[in-house]
Design goal:
This protein has 227 residues and is an alpha+beta fold. The chain is 40% helix and 23% strand. It is globular and about 65 Å long.
């Protein structure tokens, strides 16, 4: 973690020192670099604090009625601006068949939404982490978020599927460890997936990688529900 902190911090300090002797064009470029590295550092600190809070005995889950379609679309809107050009961001629900398609995106359109008793904010955070992970590794093709209500087994099955570089079989469990990264050259501290799995466990569910999907990566989150 010292390396992950020092890298953006060194960039912030270094380019801040260059600002005083820079012309206007250079100044704007340096300010952009400083802002990007500040965001990276802030994200890392937030992730470390969030993971510590999730794993503490004092953490509690706040259960409330959650409209799954609305929750999923909110999670997608938070990462839409980061999707690379030409990559389609999709949202479907296996229980429904009303899909609205646009040029680069398609979203679910139906009035029959499923209401789940869960922690809405933590569920959105989990989905957002999975979608953010997909965005980082998908340069072309599609990223799709889906949920299916399994009433027989009293659970909702969420999937986030992408057409990115995929995850080797021997890394599909390791990636849930803190600071573990498949590609060291991709930005990130390796905390998004550990946080997502911790949230899944806190909600009484499971988060795994589909070993049979070979066109990219597919994460499967199973969330149980009661009466």
């Amino acid at each position: 973690i010292s390396h992950e902190i020092r890298t953006p911090l060194n960039a912030i300090v270094g380019f801040a020192d260059l600002l005083q002797d820079a012309d206007e064009a250079e100044r704007n470029e340096y300010l952009k670099i400083i802002k990007n590295n500040t965001d990276m550092l802030l994200g890392l600190v937030n992730d470390v604090l969030d993971l510590s809070r999730l794993e503490s005995d004092s953490f509690s889950v706040i259960l409330e009625d959650c409209d799954l379609s609305e929750c999923c679309q909110n999670a997608q809107e938070r990462i839409r601006h980061r999707v690379q050009p030409g990559v389609k961001l999709g949202f479907t629900a296996s229980d429904d068949h009303f899909i609205l398609k646009t040029d680069d995106h398609f979203i679910l359109k139906t009035d029959d939404h499923f209401i789940l008793k869960t922690d809405d904010l933590r569920l959105q955070q989990l989905l957002n982490n999975l979608l953010s992970n997909a965005v980082k590794f998908t340069e072309q093709g599609e990223i799709n978020l889906d949920y299916r209500v399994d009433r027989e087994n009293r659970q909702v099955v969420f999937t986030v599927t992408d057409t990115g570089c995929g995850i080797p079989l021997d890394k599909q469990e390791v990636i849930f460890d803190r600071f573990a990264k498949v590609n060291e050259f991709i930005p990130g501290a390796g905390l998004g997936l550990p946080i997502a799995r911790t949230i899944a466990i806190r909600l009484g569910g499971t988060l795994t990688v589909d070993p049979d999907y070979d066109k990219g990566a597919r994460f499967i989150f199973v969330h149980p529900f009661g009466e």
